[in-house]
Structures are given as C-alpha cells and as structure tokens.
Specification:
Shape: globular
Distance between the termini: 14 Å
Largest sheet: 5 strands, mixed
CATH superfamily of the largest domain: Gcn5-related N-acetyltransferase (GNAT)
Strand content: 15-25%
Structural class: alpha+beta
Helix content: 25-40%
Low-confidence stretches: none
Order of helices and strands: HEEEHEHHHEHEHEE
CATH class of the largest domain: Alpha Beta
CATH topology of the largest domain: Aminopeptidase
Length: about 220
C-alpha cells in the first residue's frame, strides 16, 4: 500500500495537461464526506508509431467503511462515460495482482460492453530499502530478508564527472531523448512537453542526468517521494 502526501498527489494530478473533468468522487449523503475517489490522467499513447489519446485511471480509493458496496465499479463506469463523451480513444491501467483494481476494471468492461485486453505482465520490479527497521514496522519481513536488506540499505556516493543534478538548460535534451525512446519502442507513453517542464521545475522532484564524453545527455532519472 502506497501512502501519498499532498505533494506527491499534486505531482500525479497537478500537471498542466491534467483534465479536471477526469475526477470522480463518491459522497456519503448522510455526512457529505468524500468516501471514494477515482482520478485519471490524460496521456498520448504511441502504438507502433501511431499516437492515440488515452486516459490512465491512476488512483482508485474507497473508504474502508464503504467498501464492498459497488462504489469502485460505479465510479469506474462513470469515468468510462466521461472519457467517451470527451472523445478519448482508449484507456489503460497498471494493476497490482493482490489488489482489487483489476477486478473493478473487468467488471466495468463487462457491464459496459467494452473489451479488456492485457498488454503486458510485469514480472519483476526493484525495491530499494533505505531504512530496514522502519520498513519492518509496517511490512512483515522474515529474519533473513531483514538480514539481506540491511546490507543493501547503504547508498554509495557517486563519484563520476558524467553524473550530475538536472539544470534548467537540460530540458530540451531530455525531451529529445524521450522522443527517441518513444520512436524506438513498440508501445510507449508520450509525455507532454509542458508536463515534463512542470515536473522538472517542481522542488519536490529530483532529477539526475548522465552525460556522454562530449557532454551530451544520454540518460536521466526522475524520482519523488
């Protein structure tokens, strides 16, 4: 379970391309409180060189007291209706196998009569733990897992003249590199230029770049809390 702060929530949904219409809320009539939320992000998706206007259902949450009442499915159906009315050509989402988001997507697709296809299965992803003891207070770790992660929690200093922190003058090179990656990949998200600029200017975002021997940027990494 990922817990988002106001800052990280703003990074997800505060970009210039964000569409305020792509937010669905479930409100308890007795208390007038928001008990459910589904937010989507507009994105262009490149598939074999052709670009489509898609939306990404990026965050779905229902208050625990109101779960198993059909709120998630109802919000999903409403989001699909909004997307169709706005002229979007499709949508896709990333689902964790142990969560219920994929069940909601299947139910919405089934009831609305739209096909749902699995594009790719992510079999592995990397987690780096910086404080094993703190993580162990919220995630159950076996003794040998704690033992192993404790050796990996220290981060070695990078002493390379080719690696440095992002500077505003790097924006054009970074976006050109993104475009090259989009052209090379069979399927790729196409970030909006203004969104990339907005994110890199965000003080809560850290970007590191790698330069080749001629001083040209040939790689970058962006992180936030």
């Amino acid at each position: 379970m990922l817990i988002f702060t106001e800052d990280t929530f703003n990074i997800m949904f505060g970009a210039p391309s964000a569409n305020k219409e792509l937010f669905v809320r479930a409100i308890d009539k007795t208390t007038n409180e928001v008990v459910g939320f589904l937010g989507s992000i507009p994105r262009k998706l490149s598939i074999e060189g052709k670009r489509y206007n898609f939306i990404i259902p990026a965050w779905l949450a229902v208050h625990w007291k109101h779960q198993k009442k059909g709120l998630a499915k109802a919000m999903g159906k409403k989001m699909l209706e909004i997307g169709l009315e706005a002229g979007y050509e499709g949508g896709f989402a990333l689902h964790e196998p142990e969560q219920h988001g994929v069940d909601t997507s299947r139910a919405v697709a089934r009831e609305m009569g739209f096909p749902l296809e699995r594009l790719v299965r992510i079999k592995q992803f990397v987690i780096r733990i910086f404080d094993v003891e703190k993580v162990a207070t919220v995630v159950k770790l076996r003794w040998f897992e704690k033992f192993f992660f404790s050796f990996k929690q220290k981060v070695k200093a990078v002493r390379s003249s080719q690696v440095r922190i992002y500077e505003p003058k790097d924006l054009e090179q970074i976006y050109k590199l993104i475009e090259k990656l989009v052209e090379r990949n069979q399927i790729s998200i196409v970030p909006d230029y203004q969104d990339v600029k907005w994110m890199l200017e965000n003080p809560k975002v850290i970007c590191a770049v790698h330069e080749d021997k001629q001083g040209k940027i040939d790689g970058f990494a962006i992180v936030w809390e």
